[in-house]
Amino acid sequence: MSETAQASAAPTSIQSEIARRRTFAIISHPDAGKTTLTERILRAGGAIQLAGNVRAKGERRRTKSDWMGIERDRGISVVTSVMTFEYGDCVFNLLDTPGHEDFSEDTYRTLTAVDCAIMVIDAAKGIEARTRKLFEICRLRDIPIVTFINKMDREAQDSFALLDEIASTLALDTSPATWPVGRAAQFVGTYDIRTRELHGPAKELPQSDPRMVALSEELELVEAALPPFDREAFDAGHLTPVFFGSAMKEIGVTDLLDALVAYGPAPRAQPSESREVKADEGQVTALIFKIQANMDPNHRDRMAFARVCSGRLTRGMRLRHVRTGKQFALHTPQFFFARDRQLAEEAFGGDVVGIPNHGTLRIGDTLSESEDLRFTGVPHFAPEILRRVRLDDAMKAKKLRQALVELAEEGVVQLFRPQDGLPPIVGVVGTLQLDVLQSRLKGEYGVSIGFESTPFTMARWITGDRAKVEAFAMTNRSSMADDLDGDPVFLSSSAFMMRRTVEMNPDLAFHDIKQIG
Ligand code: G4P
């Protein structure tokens, strides 16, 4: 069936359901206010009654061991990778991204599953390092960005200067959607530039109030200097609407949500190996972008998070697990809310559902109702930290092998099995991943391990003519490994060695990114 035929075969109700989905993440530098904003958003959406603790705060300030404790606590905390709530006739799926940069691969994968990101900026600090990095990831996929300039209730940089900074450091056009009324302790609300309405306590201010006088002067400048909102440029990720507010004081939060309701974006088409899959196509497709274990320590469960990419998914449906070719029955797909989860009787393109499973589903897998397609865009990055796993108790070798496979499937680390038969090597982007691996092996599998250095600092996936790849592997046996999928990887001790190897093997391709799926 052609793409258009599939789209038109979908009943209109599916299309209108999909059109009201909003799937997004919040990106920010630590301390800019992501947690506080998340709480306020969930509260505005009725997902939590009181703006209480969504999760333990101050994660990054804690010592490593405290952090591990937090990870363990997560099983019983209200945090999940996704929180679904309704607001203004839209269904929102808010995807959580890990705060620590050692887990940036996880963040990257999560960002492949969103249609939009809210970039939170601290009004006093402006664009900070991690914001910029996360923004660049969004830009790779042209993800539309909505900007929230937070902490306007404190001393802040000049608003025009902040807009300039966004434009110049991120090469992103800015269009203020609201403007702050008053500053610091005098900040009382926002003025909506499109509707020309005041929001929050600012509504009560007399025109003679100095803040109102300042506002009208500033608005003249805004109109003269800054472009109006352009939907197309926003959808393409070239222009960001900017909102001012204070998450803590709950000012400007609903401005943000109202904007997402008004201009979306609705679920985007997702790239697959063969074609783009539009969200409102009739057949169900879904992409696994994250696996999370131990969400409920009493059950030792393992949840695969799937973005429904198209169609209407219903509970009990059987989908094709494209990597293995087997049928996969969706007995208990689940929606997550701030404090609980519920069976998902139906979900639509754009939604994110949790699928409990015991290792069948892996990151990057596609589930499909009929067509044999594979979604792309969920990558593995070549790790630069490579460590050999040293087992303390040799009797547990088999258990370790199984555990490493399970944890690698979850994306905790990447696993490389050396072709020379030496103990396995794990690869990570940040060392905190190693601590998580060690602690989970001990806690969940009862296996104590240590790490030993390896001579390797680089890994590259090799592709090319099969016989040539095998011949290369034969002559480089002690530098060769197989990854989780059995794909060949060349490990090198230095960038110089890697360059030389690449030059000497022009028939082979060496990749630092592997698309999974
Ligand atoms: P993060 O998740 O981005 O790391 O930031 P988080 O929300 O934890 O906020 C970091 C700090 O900034 C917190 O203070 C929080 O209360 C404060 N904050 C967040 N939004 C605003 C705001 O709009 N205005 C002001 N003035 N402060 C804000 P903390 O002292 O680290 O924690 P806490 O003692 O307040 O819990």
From TrEMBL:
GO biological process: regulation of translational termination
GO cellular component terms listed in the entry, alphabetical order: cytosol
GO function term, MF aspect, one: GTPase activity
Binding site for GTP: 28-35, 96-100, 150-153
Localization in the cell: Cytoplasm
Keyword terms, alphabetized: Cytoplasm, GTP-binding, Nucleotide-binding, Protein biosynthesis
InterPro entries per UniProt: EF-G-like_DII, EFG_III/V, G_TR_CS, P-loop_NTPase, PrfC, RF3_C, RF3_dom_3_sf, RF3_GTP-bd
Protein family: Belongs to the TRAFAC class translation factor GTPase superfamily. Classic translation factor GTPase family. PrfC subfamily.
Function noted in UniProt: Increases the formation of ribosomal termination complexes and stimulates activities of RF-1 and RF-2. It binds guanine nucleotides and has strong preference for UGA stop codons. It may interact directly with the ribosome. The stimulation of RF-1 and RF-2 is significantly reduced by GTP and GDP, but not by GMP.
Protein name: Peptide chain release factor 3
Organism, scientific name: Kozakia baliensis
Recorded name of the encoding gene: prfC
